[in-house]
Amino acid sequence: MHPLITSPQNPKIKNVLALEKARERREQNVFIIEGLKELSLAITGGYVFNSVFFCPDIIDAEKILSLVGDEHLLIPVQKAVFEKIAYRESTGGVLAIARQKTHFLGDLQLRPTPLVLILEGVEKPGNLGAVLRTADAAGVDAVIICDPQTDFYNANVIRSSVGCVFTTPVASATSADTIAWLKKNNIAILATYLQASSPYYEVDFRKPSAIVMGTESTGLSDLWVKQADQNIIIPMQGAIDSMNVSTAAAVVVFEAVRQRGFRR
Asked: What are the residue boundaries of the tRNA/rRNA methyltransferase SpoU type domain, all occurrences included (predicted)?
């Protein structure tokens, strides 16, 4: 085990703070995980840790060691210093640096009748995290992010997904490449759209299906609308014409799961 870190000027501490920036995460190809539950899910998802910082005043080293299995990864940190690197208050006294994975369309493994959820141009990390949590709950085959404005390893994505970013197969690609991949795999494109659309509950989701969601501000691009096999809508009963993207995704995805008899 490493010696106790007592200074915020320690190079390892400075590096953790630097990883709050997306550019630094990309350059180092690593990211930060906070919390025992998230660490456990990351291990289940096959992620590899470079180091695990912990505060001995909050959590016992043996508890972390039983999870990560390698004492050489453990770095004890004084409580005052740990509080400076912790992104949220409920970390449970543990924070890890893990290696990023690749997220290519070709890496995805699908069932014979897949259900895929696609987000175009998602901007808010909290929305992406909430959608990933829904995807995990529904057991979708994959979540594909097209032309993203945020990254999978943003701390808010990990926090709001409650670690489901590690349990849900994810990929990132351009809209054009994703459309080509869907057509190659004979997956129907069902695009959420406010005009000339069928109510979502009238659509047959039992076939290989990709549910495509746009941003709350601009909706889907014309490319998706034109390439869709069918446009679908959630009928609104109030004054507004749309819902938060994570809420809308949950409504449509669970209708698809209901039609499939809640079977994976």
From this structure: 115-253
